[in-house]
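chain below, 328 aa
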Amino acid sequence: MPPGSPITVSLTRDGQKYAHGLLDVGDSNRIYWETSGNPDGKAALCVHGGPGSGGRRGSRQLFDPEVYRIVLFDQRGCGESQPHASDPAVSLDHNTTEHLIADMERLREHLRIERWLLYGGSWGSTLILAYAERHPERVSEIVIAGVTMTRPEETDWLYHGVGRLLPGPWEAFRGALPKADRGGNLVAAYDRLMNSTDEAVRGKAARDWCAWEDAVIAHEALGKPGAYSDKPDDALMAFVRICAHYFANDAWLEDGQLLRDADRLAGTPAVLVHGRLDLGSPLKTAWELSKAWPDAELKVIDDSGHTGSPAMQDAVLEAIAQFGKSGR
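prediction:
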């Protein structure tokens, strides 16, 4: 079967996948995708976070399978996409924001979708905005839960600034690095460790990185311990390696680019849902984006952090349901 060919499973509308496959996107990469819901319904693409987390299959449950044709995919190097970034021999030279934008567009063309709703959060928010500003004519609506634009100030806050509130875990995060790297760019230092030829060095760096991410999330009122570390070894290694790769390079975006170019989203309706208690991604980013994008409605969820809450989920469900009534 040629790369990218769909594998038909069933034509059901109960939320289960009815087709899936591996799409050849070049550079020896094949991205995993699957579709569920109504094959003739309104198209919606779920854009996962991380970067490098892989698409959560449960995201389809946010969509009415009678109304939506739901598309899930794993970004390069993670999930079921091939090759997997947990293998240090796999180069990340062709794994950048530009490549991911092109992958999304190639997937849209492969599935013969004219326009689609985009849903996602955290890193997925950055990728959604980057894609939508490049291809606004291909986007019908946008729903974001947890707004980020991966600006240098946001990355600096998450891996340096939050340490003012969590001094113990942050000192452990910094202290796990070689002494020469502790006073500089911590993310860049972890990026170097994650590309070490020594498996033990890579493994320790991945666990230390996730311990810090866990500490930030667990600090939230509805957070839980081990949210990042609780991954299979391969998934954890790919997640940290890809995260460090993207954040050390500011996601290959000019500082403030997505906010500067928000005018390209004029006419694209959106709902931005953000937790007031989000420690890792403060509300300021969502607020600034909503000011620059008149067609976006900002919903601030008072009891939610980055991990969400029932109220945040309700807001997302409401937005997706409302956009489902607007047709294609």
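The first helix runs from residue 97 to 110. The longest strand covers residues 17-26.
thats it, cya
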